């Protein structure tokens, strides 16, 4: 079969006809589909998607004995997808959710600026009653829907600073971490902040189809895009809720802090900063208002003084001086320095203990001249060559004892405190300084600053005879995940264990000895060691300080107590610490009168200028 | 050289190129709209597919420009080599390719660049067929010639099929147009039989095997009756034809239930309206029809589509790009796109007929056929006239390989056409 070229050329018409015919079929089909058939327009209207964030339950928080400290309560947020909003009875809607029409318009505009197709929070934390009323008629208001989530609740209203709070993420946090979206909550302080990623869990997602009547029509693509939320981890704290509550009661009417540590682990048993506040205030719709009130309060209850306050340690610094002097070989326990009472030079003694004390005596009697001499002997020790090198050694040792730096565990807003460096003195005194120039260091005054947490850690280190675990709040995760390594790492001070015996003896005598500054508050049948301190306060009455540990043989608790403007250590800090030790070890106290006097005692804050 | 270039600008067929530019532009905006993301609202954002599509458009046009500069004889001269290289690429994909959506058709070039040799296989085959049939000494009457031609077409088709890329393999059927135009013996009959086969295929599945046998038997009886009344005796042929039909029905039934996999079977069933399944296999089609149908006469407006925006339609920036056109552009938009394609096809065929060289003419028909099959299958599937077969809509769908391949195909033809007067 052969065709001539004319016939073949004519076949182009057949082919063109096929092309045009197919095009025509398409056009006709498209016309019926798009113009004459209204069915698909209705289907499209019913084809709105709703992306519902599935908020996981935030992890709960328990104390060391399994007592619940933080749990969740359901609340309802009203969300809006601006593009899906249709004409509706705005007035009825506003009345239902109790907002004005102006607020309604303003909120809708705000949502539109965020996104027209993505949901944004319209009204947060709607009460159960309003939720019930509104959800019944929500079908009249396309584009709006409810989302359940939880807020925190604190059954015993204690430990506000430790537990912290959660609040809505700000734009900066959203930009930094794509996990967060507008309206999400994030830990703002306390363990809510330090363990945010553990507590929050992982958000889930549910995509559902919504029809024109704002009804959910089932999941989209058979749930192919859905993701179940993963609940957050529970946390067990080292905190003892009873001890914490007791400490907060004792601190009523006073400004200051109590930090109690379990020496064997570094876990914090009590973490009191006074004045405090009810953590339930920072939850729910009133959060913003309450937060501002607390912020404006002149007593600054939001500040966690246990880590954010820094104080001159006063006489509580004497153990640090003594230990470094012993370790460097500058003194021995038997070394005697002369004390002339208040007439001693260049630093006077605040006590009349008579004669020349040895180390243990000097601690019991809080002899200033002794520790000045011990400090001087350390930094002038000939083995270092010169005072600069001696001072560097001394500075290093204080660092190893946990001073002058943060522990960086899980406690937000820690302060470094201050142990002045050699270069600081070089600069300040133009390189001409000696032990006399910096003599106030030897008695814990001057530039040296310590946080109550560091102070409690010194007590724990002495109780442990030479090492500590960085103080931290967590004891364990609910799912047995290991707690971070740095909290389980034993920190060595580099001071030999043998040197602690004499220090401990001295501290025991402070509480139990005939001349001890804390002897009035000896605990019946429980041995304890401690040291009082008075931190000079240029603005008013001195701060009252006490550090202690108990029982001496097998320390279970180490503590620091600071009462601002409390005067001598023995006035407020000692009895409060003593009650705390007894309460923790015995479970109750045998001194109800003292307890009552302390709880009712008010140390007024007077600024003297 | 400068002289030559000036010549080229004057001689190229601008209507064809303008249609091309229009389609590529509509494609770019549709991809932008389909993948629009509020976080990246800029159409030039290179981190997004629409920015990448622009890069591909730029690259394709650059390559097209280079092709216009190359000597027109090059493509005829090297057609065979290009074909061989592409065959090699197809084999390489089978050996080293990466699988996407069930088809192993990608070659990783590294740096996030992927190439799909099957897109270029059509081009290579078009060149090879044009080269072979365009030879002066070729004699279609010889069996050897016919076998060679079928081999040239079927070899790449088989390789593409082996990649599990059934859609692209089907496109090779488009070469029937070329064979028909060149007077290939039996090609007209093949097309006729093809239509008959499709009808039988569909009816066998819609009605049942038994019904079909009864109908064939009835038709046979009827034909024989008329035949016996008539004068000429072709009864042997009639028996053979009806036996073939019955055998075909049997094999369709067998193939459908024994050879095809479940998902392919459901696809066909849904397409034929035997199953109404808006959430399962019919989901794509259902959503696609909703998107296009909701566009109305004038469309919802650029970036205003709700169906395509919300990812109701899967693959909406690649195979289902026509949904975006339909939803946002409405009937006005879809009409323009269909019109542009028909104009493109008619223009290519018209230009092909005015070629002096057989190579150019045959090549023109080859690419017209390829564009036509893509156009017919892709748009047909989005509006429910053809089963869902994943092949792109030329120049509109997102995808670097397909855009580049289609552009090159067209550019070579434009070059041949511009050069037609130089051929004696
Ligand atoms: Zn003294």
Describe this structure in words.
The complex is a heterodimer of chains A (609) and B (424). With 609 residues, chain A is of the alpha+beta class. Chain A has 3 domains: 5-36; 51-237, Alpha-Beta Complex (Penicillin-binding protein 2a (Domain 2)), CATH 3.90.1310.10; 241-289 and 304-600, Beta-lactamase (3-Layer(aba) Sandwich), CATH 3.40.710. Chain A has 21 helices and 18 strands. In chain A, strands 2, 3, 4, 5, 10 and 14 form a 6-stranded mixed β-sheet that branches. In chain A, strand 17 and strand 18 (557-563) form a beta hairpin. In chain A, helix 10 (241-250) runs antiparallel to helix 20, helix 13 runs parallel beside helix 15 (368-379) and helix 14 packs parallel to helix 19 (499-512). In chain A, 45% of the residues are buried. By secondary structure, chain B is mainly α. Chain B folds into 2 domains: 4-185 and 270-422, no CATH class; 194-259. Chain B is built from 16 helices and 3 strands. Chain B has helices at 2-11, 14-34, 49-69, 73-96, 117-133, 143-162, 166-171, 175-181, 187-206, 209-229, 235-259, 262-271, 283-293, 321-353, 358-382, 400-418; strands spanning 98-100, 103-110, 113-115. At the A-B interface, helix 1 and helix 2 of A face helix 8, helix 13, helix 14 and helix 15 of B. The complex binds zinc ion (ZN). Zinc ion binds next to loops of chain A. The site of zinc ion (ZN) has 7 residues of chain A, from loops.
Q: Using the CA coordinates, give the radius of gyration of chain B.
A: 23 Å
Largest interface, C-beta within 8 A: A-B, 41 and 50 residues
Radius of gyration of chain A using CA atoms only? 35 Å
Bound molecules: zinc ion
Terminus-to-terminus distance of chain A: 121 Å
Q: How many domains make up the coordinates of chain A? A: 3
Ends distance of chain B: 22 Å
Strand line-up in the sheet with most strands of chain B: 1-2-3
Number of helices of chain B: 16
CATH architecture descriptor of the largest domain in chain A: 3-Layer(aba) Sandwich
Number of domains of chain B: 2
Profile the largest sheet of chain B: 3 strands, antiparallel
Determine and state the CATH class of the largest domain in chain A.
Alpha Beta
- Looking at the structure, what is the overall shape of chain A? elongated
Q: Oligomeric form of this entry?
A: heterodimer
């Amino acid at each position: 079969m052969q065709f001539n070229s004319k016939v073949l050329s004519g076949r182009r018409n057949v082919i063109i006809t096929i092309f045009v015919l197919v095009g025509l079929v398409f056009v006709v089909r498209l016309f019926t589909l798009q113009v004459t058939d209204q069915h698909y327009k209705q289907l499209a209207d019913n084809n709105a998607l709703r992306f519902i964030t599935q908020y996981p339950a935030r992890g709960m928080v328990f104390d060391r004995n399994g007592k619940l400290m933080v749990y969740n309560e359901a609340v309802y947020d009203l969300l809006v997808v601006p593009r899906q909003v249709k004409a509706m009875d705005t007035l009825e809607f506003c009345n239902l959710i109790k907002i004005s029409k102006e607020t309604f318009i303003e909120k809708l505009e705000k949502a539109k600026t965020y996104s027209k197709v993505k949901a944004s929070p319209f009204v947060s934390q709607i009460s159960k009653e309003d939720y019930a009323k509104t959800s019944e008629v929500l079908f009249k208001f396309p584009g709006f829907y409810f989302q359940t989530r939880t807020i925190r609740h604190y059954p015993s209203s204690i430990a506000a600073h430790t537990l912290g709070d959660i609040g809505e993420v700000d734009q900066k946090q959203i930009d930094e971490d794509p996990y967060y979206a507008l309206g999400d909550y994030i830990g703002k302080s306390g363990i809510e902040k330090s363990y945010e990623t553990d507590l929050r869990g992982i958000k889930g997602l549910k995509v559902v189809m919504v029809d024109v009547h704002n009804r959910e029509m089932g999941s989209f693509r058979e749930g192919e895009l859905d993701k179940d939320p993963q609940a957050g981890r529970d946390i067990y704290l080292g905190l003892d809720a009873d001890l914490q509550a007791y400490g907060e009661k004792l601190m009523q009417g006073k400004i200051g802090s109590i930090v109690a540590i379990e020496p064997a682990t570094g876990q914090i048993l009590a973490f009191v900063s006074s004045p405090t506040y009810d953590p339930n205030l920072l939850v729910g719709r009133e959060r913003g208002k309450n937060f501002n009130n607390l912020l404006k309060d002149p007593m600054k209850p939001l500040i966690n003084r246990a880590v954010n306050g820094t104080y001159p340690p006063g006489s509580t610094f004497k153990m640090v001086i003594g230990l470094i002097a012993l370790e460097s070989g500058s003194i021995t326990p038997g070394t005697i320095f002369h004390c002339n009472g208040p007439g001693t030079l260049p630093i006077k003694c605040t006590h009349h203990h008579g004669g020349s004390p040895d180390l243990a005596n000097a601690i019991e009697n809080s002899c200033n001249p002794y520790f000045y001499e011990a400090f001087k002997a350390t930094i002038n020790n000939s083995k270092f060559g010169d005072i600069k090198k001696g001072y560097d050694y001394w500075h290093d040792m204080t660092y190893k004892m946990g001073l002058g730096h943060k522990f960086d565990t899980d406690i937000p807003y820690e302060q470094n405190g201050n142990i002045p460096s050699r270069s600081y003195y070089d600069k300040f005194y133009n390189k001409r300084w000696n032990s006399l120039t910096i003599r106030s260091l030897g008695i814990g005054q001057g530039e040296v600053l310590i946080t109550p947490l560091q102070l409690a850690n010194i007590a724990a280190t002495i109780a442990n005879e030479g090492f500590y675990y960085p103080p931290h709040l967590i004891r364990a995760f609910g799912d047995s995940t290991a707690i971070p390594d740095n909290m389980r790492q034993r920190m060595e001070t580099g001071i030999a264990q043998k040197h602690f015996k004499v220090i401990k003896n001295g501290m025991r005598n402070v509480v139990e000895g005939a001349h001890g500054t804390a002897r009035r508050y000896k605990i019946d049948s429980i041995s304890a060691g401690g040291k009082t301190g008075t931190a000079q306060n240029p603005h008013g009455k001195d701060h009252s300080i006490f550090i202690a540990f108990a029982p001496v043989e097998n320390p279970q608790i180490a503590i620091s107590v600071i009462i601002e403007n409390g005067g001598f250590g023995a006035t407020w800090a000692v009895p409060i610490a003593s009650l705390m030790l007894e309460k923790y070890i015995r479970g109750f106290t045998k001194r109800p009168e003292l307890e009552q006097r302390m709880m009712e005692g008010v140390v007024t804050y007077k600024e003297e200028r | 050289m400068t002289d030559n270039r000036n010549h080229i600008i004057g001689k190229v067929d601008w209507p064809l190129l303008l249609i091309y530019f229009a389609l590529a532009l509509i494609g770019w905006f549709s991809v932008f709209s389909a993948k629009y993301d509020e976080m990246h609202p800029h159409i030039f954002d290179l981190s997004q597919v629409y920015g990448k599509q622009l890069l591909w458009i730029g690259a394709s046009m650059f390559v097209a420009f280079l092709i216009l500069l190359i000597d027109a004889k090059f493509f005829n001269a090297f057609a065979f080599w290009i074909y061989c290289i592409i065959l090699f690429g197809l084999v390489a994909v089978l050996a080293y390719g990466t699988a996407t959506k069930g088809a192993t058709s990608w070659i990783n070039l590294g740096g996030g660049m992927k190439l799909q040799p099957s897109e270029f296989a059509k081009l290579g085959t078009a060149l090879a067929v044009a080269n072979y049939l365009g030879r002066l000494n070729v004699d279609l009457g010889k069996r050897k010639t016919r076998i060679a031609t079928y081999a040239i077409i079927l070899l790449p088709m088989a390789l593409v099929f082996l990649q599990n890329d059934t859609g692209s393999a089907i496109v090779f059927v488009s070469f029937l147009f070329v064979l028909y135009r060149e007077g290939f013996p039996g090609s007209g009959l093949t097309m006729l039989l093809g239509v008959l086969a499709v009808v039988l295929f569909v009816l066998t599945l819609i009605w049942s095997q038994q019904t079909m046998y009864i109908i064939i038997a009835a038709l046979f009886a009827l034909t024989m009756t008329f035949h016996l009344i008539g004068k000429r005796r072709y009864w042997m042929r009639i028996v053979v034809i009806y036996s073939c039909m019955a055998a075909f029905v049997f094999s369709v039934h067998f193939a459908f239930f024994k050879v095809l996999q479940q998902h392919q079977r459901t696809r066909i069933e849904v397409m034929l309206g035997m199953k109404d399944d808006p959430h399962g296999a019919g989901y794509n089609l259902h959503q696609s029809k909703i998107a296009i149908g909701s566009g109305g006469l004038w469309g919802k407006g650029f970036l205003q589509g709700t169906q395509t925006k919300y990812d109701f339609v899967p693959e909406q920036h690649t195979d289902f790009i026509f949904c975006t056109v339909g939803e946002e552009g409405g009937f006005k938009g879809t009409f323009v796109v269909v019109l542009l394609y028909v104009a493109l096809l008619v223009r290519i065929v018209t230009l092909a007929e005015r070629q002096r060289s057989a190579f150019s003419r045959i090549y023109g028909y080859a690419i017209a056929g390829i564009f036509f099959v893509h156009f017919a299958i892709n748009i047909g599937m989005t509006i429910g006239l053809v089963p869902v077969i994943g092949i792109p809509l030329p120049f509109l769908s997102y995808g670097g390989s397909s855009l580049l391949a289609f552009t090159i195909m067209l550019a070579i033809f434009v070059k041949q056409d511009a050069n037609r007067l130089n051929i004696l």
